[in-house]
Amino acid sequence: MFRAQDSEVFAPAAAASARPAFGVRSAGAPMGTPAAAVSADRADPASGWAVDLAQDIGSRRWYRGMATLILLIGLALACWPDLSALEAAPASRVDAVAAGQFRSLGLSAARPMAPPSALPAHPALRQVAFVAERTQIERSAELPAGDSIGRLLQRAGVSGSDAARASELIAGAVPLDRIAPGTRFSLVLGPRPAPGQPRQLERATLRARIDLALAVTRSGGGLTLQRQAIPVDTTPVRIRGQVGSSLYRSARAAGVPPSAIQQYLAALDSHLSLEGDIGPDDAFDLVFAYKRAATGESEAGELLYAGLERATPQGRRPVLELLRWGQDGGFYSAETLSRPSYVQTGPGLLMPVNGHVTSLYGQRFHPILGYTRMHAGVDFGAAWGSPIVATADGVVSYAGYHGGHGMYVRLEHGGSLGTGYGHMSRIMVWPGQRVRAGEVIGLVGSSGLSTGPHLHYEMYRDGQTVDPLGTRFAAVTRQVDPRELGAFRTRLAQLKALQPGALLASGVRAVSQLAMR
């Protein structure tokens, strides 16, 4: 049987052709490997270079492949690069000449190099008791934040009496807290009254304000102050530009200072939503105070005007024109200022906002949620940013975000009576604050579940909501100051008459990036 099987395996090709080729395999070949493939592999001259260690294990060919593999691994290890750290170069020696030069440039130059007895004798050398100091030295110092002028002068080497006198003279011209940190002082110090004592102050100059330079000088044995007024151009700067992808970045690229942009965004935030009401094709328009001195210095001031123009198929149209006005420094529009204020002339509650009723108390179909539910208040339609006032004296029990009410304020008026004010754009009170009837507690907005700017007004009795319109409101009279409104419109027209672009700190005329059409 063994010989028959063996003769079958090594039979001539003619006999092997009578059986399927895949049934004949060599020793060590995987099952199913065609005999022709095995023969072709062994007949290939290149197959001897690529030894398969999984075949013919223990044969001379297998051992030759194993030896080759071990040899290649050894060569790889022998060629392994050295990954150790590079050694530093040895320190170079410094000769006596170079060491002497280094010492002369260091602090040791102020100390004697050798005792007088060690100096070589020479007819041209003469020992002196001391070396005379310079009679005057010039120094420059910068005022750090939170520091005082007196301490700054003393650190610079000025005597305490002169530093105190100089601070007193400067304070007589400008309040010391108005001198900005970073102000540079140019100092000239005189001789010392005695060895080891601080020097006298001969002269100190500084730029106290953009329009005022001060100089403290020694005259007749004492210090005096000299003032120099500097001409300053105070024409405001107007800059317009397209909002683009970012209002802040577009305004900065147009030359608006960061502080003015922050004030502009805060002014707009009181009258509209910065996220949903400003598009990339809209245009910003702002005016800020600006001072430019005849000596070249410049200083940007506060925002004076904030405007926004909406892009429409017919062109851009103004949607917001706000002017800084009044003692509170707030931003108002002509429309807001022309609204009458109301003065209570009879008993009852004040109206919370100057507007008209748009939704009553009771069951209603909610326009956002899409089903009928209780509307526990009254809605007053009003323009964005309209002032909301307390309807009666009370204490703020809640001020913050309140679910669907958005920005919400709750007042407790005593006697189990309370009122609530929702959907504000800004809250202007805080919990625990006492408010008077008619005091502004917030501004109309559209926060929370709201379809547009309005006030949601609620009234509570014993903790339960009641119809606010069932309570008597106070009789009021209208008050409008035509003179103030006229002055407001005049100032607004003056600022809008400015041409966009102005001379900024770089001295280059900054024009708007937007070609206003």
TrEMBL record:
One of its GO terms (molecular function) is metalloendopeptidase activity. CDD domains: M23_peptidase (cd12797). Pfam families: Peptidase_M23. Keywords: Signal. Signal peptide: none annotated. Residues 373-468 form the M23ase beta-sheet core domain. The keyword Transmembrane does not apply. The keyword Signal applies. This is M23 family metallopeptidase. It comes from Novosphingobium aerophilum.
